[in-house]
Write a structure and sequence with these properties.
Double Stranded RNA Binding Domain; protein biosynthesis; alpha+beta; PCRF; globular; three-stranded antiparallel sheet; 11 strands; eight-stranded mixed sheet; Alpha-Beta Plaits; Pep_chain_release_fac_I_sf; translation release factor activity, codon specific
């Protein structure tokens, strides 16, 4: 409330100033007033956006999972392109990232990747990315240079704080250890330090192999498991609300949300908000704010 009152006062002051400037010849005063107006507009945009981030877990860190669809190397390469896009967005936004599980593709790309984006409102923003992302391009892996369409799914869950009670019984967990896979180098594991946890009641499986320590991998895997179980409960609650006739405003898991076309023309289009951007390379380099904002404000 205090923020809105402060904006109202600033707006009233600027309106009063603009009336005075109608008869004022001082260019420096006009420039100053225009700068103040632009600043007020920018701040109002930020306030409007923050009002959209009112969910209980919006301020939390985000756990991001990327899984390529059918299509082998082409879709696995697309999954890695999306991973890079989110890493660059996080860097631009001042967030930290930590890869907790990475399964490389056989020729290129990734078969799956899980990483945590840490920072204020990471989940609130990145939940806009949940769904299926579609890529159309001339495949660099096709010797006949044909156009291919690839699909990759993105899941985003909040990193659930330890203070939040989410009952996970030890008897409900099956914990396996295995040797981590990887392309080699200094981070390759030579011991069975990777951890896979199966939650037996739901069938949810998570794995972590990024750390050398089995203990650290287990802790990271439990973080991801908590996030997944929370998301599962949220989905069930949403389905119940919809069954009772509530409005369908939630995220539809598995639905296509955005299309990235590189050939025959260049365009990224969000299928929910209608936001379009012609500079595909800029988007793939992490410039996602226009899409995130469009999604949040359209909700």
């Amino acid at each position: 409330m205090e923020n809105f009152e402060a904006y109202e006062k600033r707006l009233a002051d600027l309106l009063e100033l603009s009336e005075l400037l109608e008869t004022e010849e001082d260019d420096s005063m006009k420039k100053e007033a225009l700068a103040d107006m632009k600043k007020l507009a920018d701040d109002t945009d930020k306030l409007e956006l923050s009002a959209m981030l009112a969910g209980e877990h919006d301020p939390d860190n985000a756990i991001v999972e990327i899984h390529p669809g059918a299509g082998g190397t082409e879709s696995q390469d697309w999954a890695e392109m999306l991973m890079r896009m989110y890493m660059r967005w996080a860097e631009r936004s001042g967030y930290k990232t930590e890869v907790v599980d990475f399964l490389p593709g056989e020729e290129a790309g990734v078969k799956s990747v899980t990483f945590i984006v840490s920072g204020e409102y990471a989940y609130g923003y990145l939940k806009a990315e949940i769904g299926v992302h579609r890529l159309v391009r001339i495949s660099p892996f096709d010797s006949n240079k044909r156009r291919h369409t690839s699909f990759t799914s993105v899941s985003v869950m909040p990193e659930i704080d330890d203070d939040i009670k989410l009952e996970i019984l030890d008897d409900d967990l099956k914990i396996d250890t295995f040797r981590a896979s990887g392309a080699g180098g200094q981070h390759v594991n030579v011991t069975d330090s990777a951890v896979r946890i199966t939650h037996l009641p739901t069938g949810v499986v998570v794995s972590c192999q990024n750390e050398r320590s089995q203990h650290k991998n287990k802790a990271s895997a439990m973080k991801v498991l908590k996030g997944k179980l929370f998301a599962l409960e949220e989905q069930k609650m949403q389905e119940k609300r919809e069954a009772l006739g509530g409005e369908k405003k939630g995220i539809q898991w598995g639905s296509q949300i955005r299309s990235y076309v590189l050939q025959p023309y260049q365009m990224v289009k969000d299928l929910r908000s209608g936001v379009e951007v012609g500079d595909v390379r800029r988007v793939l380099d992490g410039d996602l704010d226009v899409f995130i904002r469009g999604y949040l404000l359209s909700g």
